[in-house]
Specification:
- The complex is a heterodimer.
- Chain A is built from no helices and twelve strands.
- Chain A is mostly beta strands.
- In chain A, strands 2, 5, 6, 10, 11 and 12 form a six-stranded mixed β-sheet that branches. A four-stranded antiparallel β-sheet of chain A has the order 3-9-8-7, with no helix packed on it.
- Chain B is mostly beta strands.
- Chain B is about 0% helix and about 50% strand.
- In chain B, a hairpin with a 3-residue loop joins strand 4 and strand 5.
- The chains are: A mainly beta, B mainly beta.
Chain lengths: ~110, ~110
């Protein structure tokens, strides 16, 4: 079945370090891909998305490129800040006929000053 | 309110009791979703309502779980005869018609079954 696999956390970085959180997926169709973020004490919110192969989603300095050949959608940021500390979820939507998203298990990021 | 509202925010119950969790979606959002977030397990899809269509119940883990959506707005998730493994945060989300995948989440209802 359709699924999303994320690298296990927690990931601990110093401020201004480079961030990569790996995400790979399995899907029968041509999914849309998403990164959601959950800041402490808040609900999940959309961070970025890509709807077709080779698309790059970007927001708040974060980027992810939809790689169909490697079925991946890795999240990157060049210089993390303490305020980026959160749980990050990769997700896919297989069909435009359903809004249902399938999420990965989440990766906790902690950024230390 | 402006966002998705869930109640109660915290619920502690005894094994075997029934619980009801409520979700009030954003006004005008036709799609409503329930997910479960367990420690270390990520988000598990439970059920999806879209307008007047039959709901997608494919994620409900057992027949102890049910959900309804009245009048195309408020939804209630009911768990009968709760078990300790039902302890989790239950998240509700909604989206507007034609959404390309942006779900708006509530802050969740944390259920603890003793």
């Amino acid at each position: 079945g359709d699924s999303v696999t994320q690298m296990e956390g927690p990931v601990t970085l110093s401020e201004e370090a480079f961030l990569t959180i790996n995400c790979t997926y399995t899907a029968t169709g041509y999914p849309s891909l998403f990164w959601y973020v959950q800041y402490p004490g808040e609900g999940l919110q959309l961070l970025l998305k890509a709807t077709k192969a080779d698309d790059k989603g970007s927001n708040k300095g974060f980027e992810a490129t939809y790689r169909k050949e490697t079925t991946s959608f890795h999240l990157e940021k060049g210089s993390v800040q303490v305020s980026d500390s959160a749980v990050y979820f990769c997700a896919l939507r297989v069909s435009s006929n359903t809004g249902k998203l399938i999420f990965g298990q989440g990766t906790t990021l902690q950024v230390k000053p | 309110g402006a966002g998705v509202s869930q109640s109660p925010s915290n619920k502690v119950t005894e094994k075997g009791k029934d619980v009801e969790l409520r979700c009030d979606p954003i006004s005008g959002h036709t799609a409503l979703y329930w997910y479960r977030q367990s420690l270390g397990q990520g988000l598990e899809f439970l059920i999806y309502f879209q307008g007047n269509s039959a709901p997608d119940k494919s994620g409900l883990p057992s027949d102890r779980f049910s959900a309804e959506r009245t009048g195309g707005s408020v939804s209630t998730l009911t768990i009968q005869r709760t078990q300790q493994e039902d302890s989790a945060v239950y998240l509700c989300a909604s989206s507007f018609p034609g959404s390309t995948g942006e779900l708006f989440f509530g802050e969740g209802s944390r259920l603890t079954v003793l």
